[in-house]
Amino acid sequence: ADGNVLRGDVYVDGVSDSLVRAESRIVAVIGVKDLVVIETADAVLVAHKDQVQRVKQVVEHLKA
């Protein structure tokens, strides 16, 4: 659907070419393109798809 990858309890409207993943809560995303949205019990990550190579750096910072 519109190039999206959706996992978990998610609601999207007007979203394209995005990955939205919810592990422990409902995640609603509206009117965006090319985003990665990942919700876990510990944190929420929102990033442009062009920046996903920086995720490891962010995770290491959050664990510190």
Tell me about this structure.
The protein has one domain (5-63). The protein is 14% helix and 39% strand. The chain has one helix at residues 55-63, and strands at 5-7, 10-13, 19-22, 27-30, 35-39, 44-48. The protein has a 4-stranded mixed sheet with strand order 1-3-5-6, with no helix packed on it. Strands 2-4 form a two-stranded parallel sheet. The N and C termini lie far apart (37 Å). The mean pLDDT is 94.
How are the secondary structure elements laid out?
Blueprint: E1 5-7, E2 10-13, E3 19-22, E4 27-30, E5 35-39, E6 44-48, H1 55-63
Parallel strand pairs: 1-3, 2-4, 3-5
Antiparallel strand pairs: 5-6
- Count of DSSP strands: 6
The largest β sheet comes out as: 4 strands, mixed
What structural class do you assign from the helix and strand content? Answer: mainly beta
Helix content: 10-25%
Order of helix and strand elements from N to C terminus: EEEEEEH
Unreliably modeled segments = none
Large-scale geometry: flat
The termini sit apart by 37 Å
Notable traits:
64 residues, mainly beta, 4-stranded mixed sheet, two-stranded parallel sheet, 1 helix, 14% helix, 39% strand, flat
